[in-house]
Amino acid sequence: MSGDVKKVVLAYSGGLDTSIILRWLQDTYACEVVTFTADLGQGEELEPARKKALMMGIKPENIFIDDLREEFVRDFVFPMFRANAQYEGVYLLGTSIARPLIAKRQIEIANQVGADSVSHGATGKGNDQVRFELGYYALKPEIKVIAPWRIWDLNSRTKLLDFAEKHQIPIAKDKRGEAPYSTDANLLHISYEGKALEDPWVEPDEDMFTRSVSPENAPDQPTYLEIDFEAGDAVAVDGERMSPARLLTRLNELGGANGVGRLDLVENRFVGMKSRGVYETPGGSVLLVAHRGIESLTLDRGAAHLKDELMPRYAELIYNGFWFSPERLMIQAMIDEASQNVSGTVRLKLYKGNVTVVGRKSPKSLYRLDYVTFEEDSVYDQRDAQGFIKLNALRLRLAKMARG
């Protein structure tokens, strides 16, 4: 086995599991390990990951810690939000959309350092193993993939801790006990799964949440804000232009302060089982409502309805890991074309967990007051509706006559 792998790029968080994987790779394959840690806005200090990798014998030139926040929002989150994507009608895909970027950067590093393999810390039960590996193979078909959780015998928390102690891998104190849940975080969201949440009848503890106040404890006065859009993407909040990552950070602050963006969901994993997850996506929840608000003014009915028909398919592609697939790219091209005139300003009211559109305007607006007014007008002949209705009723009348 050791001769099969020469150099591997590991997606490395610096936590217990990936630190164990790092040492396991060294022991199992006698190979050179390159660590890659992505800053996606998870809100954690990443320099400890560098120190830990150095301590475990990784060469300084083989440690990559990359700030990918702007690329994440600009090239992954924003294109997804142009589609109004929600998996199973409610989930804003915060974990799913981060995986193709991590895979992309891993392959870039593999090409840069001449690695023949990549590795990740996803388990054999979840979606992430699929998302990572579909990304790897789409970008570098010949790459070798090492998924330790599918092949090693460290299949319990006790065995993991014993391995860590044997190899002098630092263990955080709280890791010695049973954590109440596992989390995944980035600039778009944070998720909570497992342990106390595995019973879908049990309500999450309030002290679990980190990005939002409870709606009950949110301010008694609403917060009003305006978001400017250009070609389907948010570009400014309250008139201040911001970079994509900074804008999403600002929406997270405003949404979280008003109890916006919590979701408790039992979802269908790609691998076949159901799982219960709790999510906080404050900024994304605000952005979705705002984006649909500006689309209501600027999208033609046919385009808007076709987008809504395709959205579940698009969301499922992202959830299942097919970001780099031909069909996702085809749908994205259509969505981006439809978004060219999705520009203007939306005014929102945030209040105790709710996001409401209270105003919208656009230089590309298709809304015409002279056509929709209840007052007298000279542009719409109401008598035209009679023939329109009769033609649409023709098949219904024929069907009834045929039935007798």
Give the helix/strand class.
alpha/beta
CATH architecture of the largest domain: Alpha-Beta Complex
Q: What's the SSE pattern?
A: EHEHEHHEHEHEEEEEHEEHHHEEHH
Mean pLDDT over the full residue set: 94
Total domains, how many?
A: 3
CATH C-level class of the largest domain is Alpha Beta
User: Strand tally, please?
Assistant: 14
Beta fraction: 15-25%
Give the overall silhouette. elongated
Helix content: 40-55%
In terms of quaternary structure, the protein is single chain
**What is the H level of CATH, i.e. the homologous superfamily of the largest domain?**
Argininosuccinate synthetase, chain A, domain 2
Give Rg in angstroms: 25 Å
Largest sheet: 5 strands, parallel
Q: Helix segment count? A: 12
Summarize the structure.
With 404 residues, the chain is α/β, with parallel strands linked by helices. The chain has twelve helices and 14 strands. The mean pLDDT is 94.
What does the model show?
This protein is α/β, with parallel strands linked by helices. It folds into 3 domains: 2-68 and 97-177, 3-Layer(aba) Sandwich (Rossmann fold); 183-361, Argininosuccinate synthetase, chain A, domain 2 (Alpha-Beta Complex), CATH 3.90.1260; 372-403, no CATH class. It is built from 12 helices and 14 strands. Helix 9 (301-320) packs antiparallel against helix 10 (326-338). The mean pLDDT is 94.
Topology:
Blueprint: E1 7-11, H1 16-29, E2 32-39, H2 47-55, E3 63-67, H3 69-82, H4 99-113, E4 117-119, H5 128-139, E5 144-146, H6 157-166, E6 182-185, E7 190-193, E8 223-230, E9 233-237, E10 240-241, H7 244-257, E11 262-268, E12 274-280, H8 282-298, H9 301-320, H10 326-338, E13 344-351, E14 354-361, H11 369-372, H12 384-403
